[in-house]
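FAQ: What does the model actually see?

It sees only this:
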Amino acid sequence: MSGFLRGTGVALATPFNSDGSIDYDGVTKLVDFCVGGGVEYLVALGTTAESVTLSKEEKKSLIQHIVQVNDKRLPLVIGIGGNNTAAILQEIKDTNLSDFDAILSVVPMYNRPNQEGVYQHYKAINDNTPLPVLLYNVPSRTGTNMTAETTLRLAQLDNIVGIKEAVGDFTQVLKVLKDRPKDFLVISGDDALALPAVAAGGDGVISVVGQGFPKEFSEMIRLGLAGETSKAFQILYKLLPVMDYAFAEGNPAGIKNVLKAKGICNDNLRLPLVPVSDELAKKIKDFIKKK
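And it is asked to produce this:
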């Protein structure tokens, strides 16, 4: 059911015009670039999309545009998450999900629930979703770590099919891999650790940097999944500098500068986010020139 989520998914950024409106031409170029680069699926309205700054109307319009441009070429995952469980259930109900294959939902941020609260939050989503659900653990953003024990408990629920794990603690990733049920997907949410996670038995990545280098990144993960780790790590080591650059001054500021340097879209962001420094922009530009 969720096998299409193996390999490389990309968490699409949202290009903006200089006046702050959505740059739909940029969205088109980005989707085409990722599809043409060979990634396995696209993720819309994730953290990288600056989704917290998008209005309901903008989200609806952006979704429609991505669906139209993708034209059923790749599976689509939609981010629907937050820290108000009732509001998430309502958003799932109100969103046209007919063109999507799964929901990605982040651990609630700011109000910092305990592990039982995290479990009950996801159980409510599990009980009220028409689509498979990917958990998303990213403590650096949410302030709460969903433990391996809670992840494995949630993995027993019918509609919870996997996790995007960005905990930053590889031991925790290994604990989930060790005891996960059959067919429960463990997907890296950390670009630099994606290949090591695949080598340990993981299923792939939902990547930020992958949308800037879709051909190289998806090939790296495919090689890793095929057990050709030596070739895969050669690609990783080539991409490692730009992985650092992409996150040095925050996401998606870094990846938007990469996309600008590649001529796909500009690097406008919505406040409180701002573009990267001139110094970092030069490093990114130099890396792309040398590559």
